[in-house]
From TrEMBL:
The protein's name in its UniProt record: Ribonuclease BN (tRNA processing enzyme)
Domain annotation Metallo-beta-lactamase: ranges: 42-222
PANTHER family for the chain: METALLO-HYDROLASE YHFI-RELATED (PTHR46018:SF4), ZINC PHOSPHODIESTERASE ELAC PROTEIN 1 (PTHR46018)
Domain of life: Bacteria
Amino acid sequence: MSPEIATEPDIAIGPDAAINPETGMRLQVLGASGSASGPHEPASCYLVTTPESTLVLDLGPGAFGALWAAVDPRRITAFLISHLHADHCLDLLAADVAAKYSTTAPWPRIPVYAPAHAAERLARAEDPDPGPPADPEWAFDFHPWRETVRLGDCLVRTAPTAHPTQTFAIRIEHAGRSLVYTADTGESAEVTELARGADLLLAEASFPDHPGLPTGLHLSGRQAGRMAAEAGVGRLVVTHVPPWGDVDAAVLEARAEFDGPVTAAAQERVHHLGQIV
Ligand SMILES: [Zn+2]
Ligand SMILES: [Zn+2]
């Protein structure tokens, strides 16, 4: 009998007794709040684990503590930073401090894949004094994004999104399973193409849908649902709804456009993509 393929969400956080450790991929939502951290939720951060890889998608304000609670940061294969807006990257400063000064320091240097100039941008945030920022001697190795990167047992592919600064949607493939994170984007043929056939689409849904939405900035729940339908994905998880937004409304908008399962990242914390043992 062939093993059942599981893409159902699971709110349990802990040992993965139900997933085949030889093949499984697991997405854990650590921060789903859009544009800023919220009263109950860090800003953008998603942990993707496979048998040999621990990948962190974005590290927004408040997220490093949640990450540290979920995994030993010294095991991280790489940070994958979609773009350099503050709500997606600023807790790299917290990770850098812990890597250099915590009781387990120094940590192994952690690769950071990010848009060009990430080190300079973060140095500006790190330095408290006016003038050109001092070199913080990062605990990271920065790498500019490429179209395709192999990290551990994962293949990572990117596509540019429709957003006011250089931003990359990210696709992670492992053992025949795939998930795609839109990052911040307006409607985008490139992002839709990157998402084609993915088992899970983690799509931003910042805006309540209404006529005359700005282009090249963010998606509404309805637009996220339309992207999921056009890309033919297996499941849609909406995220990046700001603290002042309505998560339930974003889910309902998406369900009006996409026939597959739709949930909210802020409510369903863990998703398994792999074979049940
Ligand atoms: Zn954002
Ligand atoms: Zn942004």
